[in-house]
Amino acid sequence: MRAVKRLGQVFLKDKRIISFIVDSGEVKEGDTVLEIGAGPGNLTSEILSRGANVISIEKSTEYYQLLSAIFKEEIERGRLTLINGDALKVDFPRFNKVISNIPYSISSPITFKLLKYSFDLGIIMYQKEFAQRLVASPGTPEYSRITVNVYYFADVKILRNVKRGSFYPIPDVDSSIVKILPRRKFSVIDEKHYFELTRILFSQRRKTIRKIIGMDVPYGDRRVEELTPEQIAEISDYIILRRNENKIFQ
To answer: How far is it, in rounded angstroms, from Cα 138 to Cα 43?
Structure first.
């Protein structure tokens, strides 16, 4: 079967890379692994071979039917749950790990959807340029709003880069295998305000913080691309506290 171009499907064919991904996920018996975009089941098969249960979400009806036939025994035994649907729209059953070669077109929304769920570890294949944005440091061109937002929820590390020849059909970009470790969030007074402030600041990243906000705040003479996520949180908290003080004295 061919990849479905409109779904952005490319399939990992390099068995060494597949093994590396599953090894990195420390997959073992008792795990429940979420896989987004199962395709022909290359990664699915390797995860199942380690004794874990798998929840695979596949948008293509054709590949869903193919997977149903290939893994009929595992489905009957309850070791594999197949969901034919859009991963951005379906609710995820409980899982403790996510291991996926995701469609790159949904990298950002699927990452933030995943981070709303509770899980121990994620190993995800991203487009290389997107992965670099996830791990970027302040002051670098790749440092962006998504860097700051993801950092709020998890620690992220690039494990290795993967050449485009490891996939079929061969994509136009290289890829990276990324490890995601959800962790306790750093504290902010108002989470919604923090994310909205981050959006506003990065939409005018060349201006100083003071010019964007229009008031004196910590780090006001600096640009957002120079600030750590924690420093942006300081600014957010400062604004909230000042607003509350003004309400008290009105």
So the answer is: 35
What is the spatial distance between Cα 217 and Cα 81, in angstroms, rounded to a whole number? Answer: 51
CB 54 within 8 A of CB 35: yes
154 and 91 share one domain: yes
Is residue 155 helix, strand or coil?
strand
Are 128 and 230 found together in one domain? Answer: no
* Residues 105 and 227 reside in one and the same domain: no
The rounded distance, in Å, linking the Cα atoms of 103 and 171 is: 11
* Shared domain check, 199 and 169: no
Helix (H, G, I), strand (E, B) or coil at 88: coil
**Structural Rg of the chain based on CA atoms:** 21
Whether the model clears a pTM of 0.85, i.e. scores above it, the answer is yes
The pLDDT tens digits of the residues spanning 143-190 come to: 999 999 999 999 999 999 999 888 877 778 899 999 999 998 788 999
CATH number of residue 216's parent domain: 1.10.8
Do residues 64 and 41 touch, judged by C-beta distance below 8 A?
Answer: no
218: domain range? 191-249
**Tokens (6 digits) for 180:** 């995601």
Give pLDDT tens digits for 112-129. Answer: 999 999 999 999 999 999
